[in-house]
Amino acid sequence: MRYHIIAALLMMALSVALSACNRGETQLPPPEVITSGNAANGEQIFNARCTNCHATTTEMRLGPGMAGLFGPNGPTRPPGVTYGSNLPNGQPINEINVATLIRSGGQWEIAYMPPQSLDDQQLADLIAYLKTLE
Ligand code: HEC
After folding, report:
1. How far is the CA of 13 from the centre of ligand 1 (A)?
2. 27-46 burial code (b ≥16 CB/10 A, e <16)
3. Of 1, 4, 63, 93, which shows the fewest CB atoms inside 10 Å?
4. pLDDT of 126 over the 50 cut
5. Is the CB of 113 under 6 A from ligand 1?
6. Predicted confidence band at 14 (pLDDT cuts at 50, 70, 90)?
7. Residue 117: alpha-carbon gap to chain centroid
8. CB of 116 closer than 6 angstroms to any ligand 1 atom
9. Burial, 79: exposed, middle or buried (Cβ in 10 Å; 0-12, 13-18, 19+)?
10. Taking the mean position of all CA atoms in its chain, how far away is CA 56?
């Protein structure tokens, strides 16, 4: 009897651990997908999902404008914000890290960005578009 309870508890722990792993994987789109997006589709997704909070210029809305995101200095942020040439979460600015941040959202020095539920192709298209914003 005791062993059944222990076995049941182990199974529960295992399934919790496995679902945590799966969540981790869905946070990271495969690199070959993320670098092969379509910028025209990405522009439509951006206009539908991001423009309330982000301009395509250096203008600040709730979040920073996306111009220059993939440039050497990153996007233009309000004075005093300390991310430098990294993302708010401290990661270097590259396709995978930007895609991961868009999916996860978060709260750093400026304001809260809600997680964005987008599939891998939509994320790739968005990245391709964001790279055109200089
Ligand atoms: C409800 C408002 C909101 C929406 C919608 C939103 N964001 Fe954000 N986003 C923010 C805020 C606020 C920040 C700044 C977070 C911080 O630094 O504290 C941010 C930060 C970012 C950053 C990091 C910028 C930097 O400083 O390096 C990127 C990239 C980004 N958003 C992309 C997107 C994209 C792409 C979309 C659309 C799919 C999107 N966001 C939708 C509010 C939003």
Report:
1. 35
2. eebeeebbbebebebbbebb
3. 1
4. yes
5. yes
6. low
7. 10
8. yes
9. exposed
10. 17
